[in-house]
Design brief:
This protein is of the alpha+beta class and 143 residues long. 34% of the residues lie in helices and 14% in strands. The termini are far apart. About 3% of the residues have low confidence.
Length: 143
């Protein structure tokens, strides 16, 4: 099984479920706060650079949900500046195994990558990313 560095928003119910699926599959986790990490351009780009810019954003973020930030309308440099200034905008979780990094929690993709129990791998992306109803200002259900 794999040892995963898992960047989360502390208290996020969605991240809690994702961590449990990984643990249930036999992986070990080094859990880190996405918000407390001192992100640099290089460190963040190591996770997101291969994705389309719009996929860098947390769709459950209050700024995205309200329309104040429209990921499809943001260029790469502006997106990077926004994410560094407000880590709540970063799509999560960020996952790292060795030198490979991933963004978001798509159970089927994670199952292919490092293995995940078959029940979790069949869950839809909509169920496994984002937050539950009743979000607080940080974009997640209150703990």
């Amino acid at each position: 099984m794999s040892h995963i560095v898992f960047f989360e928003k502390p208290g996020c119910g969605g991240n809690a479920k994702q961590k449990q699926w990984l643990l249930d599959a036999g992986h070990t986790l080094d859990v880190r706060s996405l918000l407390a990490t001192q992100w640099t351009e290089a460190a963040l780009l190591a996770f997101v650079d291969a994705l389309p810019v719009a996929d860098w954003f947390n769709r459950a973020s209050p700024r995205v949900k309200s329309g104040r930030v429209v990921p499809e309308d943001v260029d790469r440099d502006t997106a990077l500046a926004l994410l560094l200034a407000d880590p709540l905008l970063i799509r999560r979780p960020l996952l790292q195994v060795g030198d490979e990094r991933r963004v978001g929690f798509d159970p089927a993709a994670i199952d292919t990558w490092i293995g995940l129990d078959s029940h979790a791998a069949q869950r839809s992306r909509a169920q496994s990313e984002g937050c539950a109803a009743g979000m607080n200002e940080g974009g997640c259900a209150a703990p």
